[in-house]
Amino acid sequence: MAKYIFKRFILMIVTVFIIATLTFFLMNVIPGSPFNEERTTNAAVQQNLEEHFHLNEPLAIQYVLYLKSIVTLDFGPSIKQPTETVNSLLGRGFPISAELGIWTVLLALVSGVALGVFAALKHNGIIDYIAMTIAVLGISIPNFVLATMLIQELAVNLSIFPAATWSSPQHMVLPILALATGPMAIIARLTRSSMLETLTQDYIKTARAKGLSPVKIIVKHALKNALMPVVTILGTLLAGILTGTFVIEKIFAIPGMGKYFVEGINQRDYPVIMGTTVFYSAFLVFMLFLVDIAYGILDPRIKLHKEGGN
Question: From 3.40.50.1240, 1.10.3720.10, 3.40.50.970, 3.90.1150.10, which CATH number describes the 93-264+293-298 domain?
């Protein structure tokens, strides 16, 4: 187990390093400077700004300074917001993005599993058809389209929820719904298929023959094994939710990391782009690592310590 964790930890570091390196060189491939669009900035001032942010240094020197900022966890000041550092933006934005992500994952998991289980138990019944119709719609509608629809109907037309910002529980409802619907639909379909297969297994038939109650059979025996495929796709769903926050935070004017990332791209704020990219990639890789560990714990057939095991 310890050997497996160590190998995965090294792989995490290598993955983040590769992503950080690709981000750096992709940003430098784009021609021009962040100060080119500042029409009121004369050449001397622009040169001083480039020197201050080391943009006039050779690419190799810039790369070394960039790696140093990653190791020291100090990404320096924002180019477009000189009074702010990248670390302060991350510190202010991450708790909001984390709250959005946690509630989204919880809603998607609980509602998706419940919908899938009920659909499997009522296979080919009206509940099954309704549940799968909801799931198909959830998968088919992009989150930004759903977000627009929710704002129009529930915020503008009916005035039930506020349309933007993140200052109260009421403000959280629409963005969480918009972001959780897609993953919820995927989890529901996968849970239904897995539950239908699990209910046909011999150990379920044995449990029924012993006279166990249907609730006990489902909760104690069937559900754990039916959730294994859901655990395997949690990493992919987390990645989807993470990238989805970029758009959702922008639509709902949520001051999270996604908002700063999108603004950094639009403004060519190199430190913000690279700082948020490294942070996002490190966080996502760590979450995927936790998913691997959880899968190994839930499924005793997987030997995490096995040589070459992934």
Answer: 1.10.3720.10
